[in-house]
Records
---
Amino acid sequence: MEIKKRFWQILIGVIGLSLFFIIPISLIETGGEKPHNEETNHNKTDKKFNATALIFDHIGDAYSWHLFTKNGKHVAVPLPIIVYSNSTGLNVFLSSKLEHGHHYNGFYIAQEGEYEGKIVESSGNVHNNHGITAEITEQESHSETAVTRPIDFSITKNVFEMFLSAFLLLWIFISVGRSYKKRGVTSAPKGLQGFIEPIILFVRDDIARPNIGEHKYQKFMPYLLTVFFFIWVNNLMGLIPFFPFGSNVTGNIAVTLVLAAFTMLITNFSGNKNYWKHIFATPGVPVPLRIIMIPVELIGVISKPFALMIRLFANITAGHIIILSLVSMIFIFKSIYIAPVSIAMGLFMSMLELLVAALQAYVFTLLSALFIGLAVEEGHH
Amino acid sequence: MYLNIILANSLISPEIGLLFWTTLTFLILLILLRKFAWKPILNAVKSREENIDNALNAAKKAQEDNAKLQESNKEVLKEARAERDNMIKEAKELKNQMVNEAKKVAEVETDKIRKAAITDIQNEKNAVMDDLKKQVANLAVDIAEKIMKENLSKDENQKKLISGLVDDIKIK
């Protein structure tokens, strides 16, 4: 009963969220009526299927949430763009303003060059000196104008999905936390609580305790649990191919970099005397050899979280690439008869990715716990 | 061309915006979850584990107590059995003793009765003998009278008779 109720709550939430975006979608559709040079070019390239472009478009970040293309028109959910430029200051607007190569306030999405796919600003100063109006600038080829990259804090596809995952996590775990207060500690866990508790106990008993040690693990439990569930939920959300899911959050280097940086900072800030002694005066190593050992150990401080960053990024991105490649096979072969093969292999890969989603969350948490454990370990020498 | 796409795709070049939002989201998530989820959950789980441990220990103790109780019960039962056996034994002895005593008493009584009977018989006999003697004496006197009346004419006969009578009397 409880689960059924929850299910309906989730369904209504998702539908509500989707409805919230339908009005802007229709706006884009009408807004994108007039034909553009870029668009017609785009249509031409669309005819020749480019799997690489499609795949990299899907696993990369985007300013709007592309849903589908109808009659050569992209239907997308617009997302807020927040950019700060030196000339115009802080600008906040919806990405629908930049659809189909439109310019807004001097900002547009670069189609080529160093900042391809990113918001750039055409520096009007150069043209103003020449007496050319902004209108002409827009019409002209971009290579002639000097483009600069503004500081970009846009709520992109990945940011949006990350927010969604954060709300989902807060909702799940705060409600579970409440059910402990409500139900007390003497009764057996029920419903969502019963599903979550074994996982929390797994993180505690199989990740934190053996790696950090019985006396010190408690301090690090909130971080380990948060990072575990954050990665897991984002991995899973990335596997759902429908709006508002399917974004490659944990397969983005920026996200994994932040997570790995957290582990690195926690490891080094909780490192005890023994840990630093191992780095700067490794026991049993003659003093002259320290010239070599200290740099090696310092590289180790960086390389451990660096490996965490690359591992998660590569695993999740690879999974997305494989599934998308399998789907692309249908279009590469231009045959519907390849579809059963694509679907069967895609299904298999999706199953594997479900495992990988949990496995990578586990590995990241396990290695974080291991690094922290090494940093807080008391000397045995 | 592909390398270009990879590089341009920000796949391996982290964007400042995403770095910022990820840090912010993760920090807020960490703080909120720590306060409202992890602490209550972990504390609850811990106290439940303690509860379970206590309950298990209590159950173990109860079991031990029970075992001890059973042991002592057995002891009591054993003692009770011994007591019962003892009592039965004593009762048997008592019974035997009583029976023996009764037998003795009965023997003594019968003895007494027999002795009394013997005495009585003796007395009776004596009385009967006395009576008989008297009667015999009377009879003898009667007989003697008759004989005297018939044979006293002869002297020898008289003497014989008298000595014979006298002898007879002496024997008795």
---
Amino acid sequence: MAAPGTFALHGWDWLQLFGQFLLLSLLSVGGALTTAPEMHRYLVLQQRWLSEAQFSNSITLAQAAPGPNILFVALLGWNLGMNSGGPLLALAGVVLSLTGILLPSTIVTHLASQWGHRNRHLRPVRAFKQGMAPVVIGLMLATGWILARASQAGGKAWPLGLLTAATALLIWRTRLHVLWLLGAGALLGVLGLV
Amino acid sequence: MSEGKPLPENPAGPRSLADLFLSFSWLALQGFGGVMAVAQRELVERKRWLSRAAFLEEWAVAQIMPGPNVMNLSLVIGGRSFGWRGALAAMAGMLTLPLLLVLLLAVAYGRFGTHPAVARALRGMGAVAAGLIMAAALRLSGGLKGHPLGGPASAALAVGAFGGVALLHWPMPFVLLGLGSVACLATYVRLDP
């Protein structure tokens, strides 16, 4: 059942995975996708629980579907379960991964937002809110870069890189709807142009 | 940034937990490639649950706190009206239907994904998805203009974070804590008490 070159998860592995996601949840400042590079390092490179293609397809499917981007984590869990046995484990993987990635951040954010709202005039609160902004932006760019590299694996690196750059420019500078670009990407892929 | 009187307590806020759940479900189902752009239009302009200024303030918190931005935004808005139960209702709305949809997609992909045309289509969409995230970062970078550290220093921090993670492959948590604490301390020093 497992994708070629990947290992199935057994017993303790699931717990280890859950712990890793709990930890990443607390570090997922700037959005779910900023943890994608770390998940990639852990799941694909270190543990070999997921293939390169499974990882990047999880992100792509989640981006193509409506809803929050965090759903890529549900798909990672789905693939981990499929690699380890089948649909039932896959559903367990979805629940485990989503709970792990959301539980700590939800608790922290809920408490902090109420505290921060009461104390928003304080200098440390303002310094934190404003100080993190440039680092968060840099991390988001890095995420885009790493995803672009992953999408280029096994494809034509140049045209794919150009497609990424064109998308970034168009969405940044125009009001073009995302769906047009996702459709264009799919079409260019089917035609074998990228 | 958020000086002045407290936010008015959502004059036209969500009416009930069910209202929160359904509103955020509807919002999430419109969000292709991310929910952020839809969130502003839906919550501020159509539902008028928040003023534009209040939205920006909540957005800054959602952005800076750990967790997915739009999930944080929903939990902060839900939490402000109905406490914990509101936060959970809003988050459940954001997740439930989109999760079912994306799992259906995954099953379909498992069945047809080995077809070379599907693989190529996904590769093309993957390149686009990477560009979408970069565009979101570039849009946000416009907000650095009035940054207390000044343009060049904040740009250097952003480039440093990018280079460390993307090019040098440093673990993201180190970059976040290391560069982040430098940035926050420097900002603290620059801010008026």
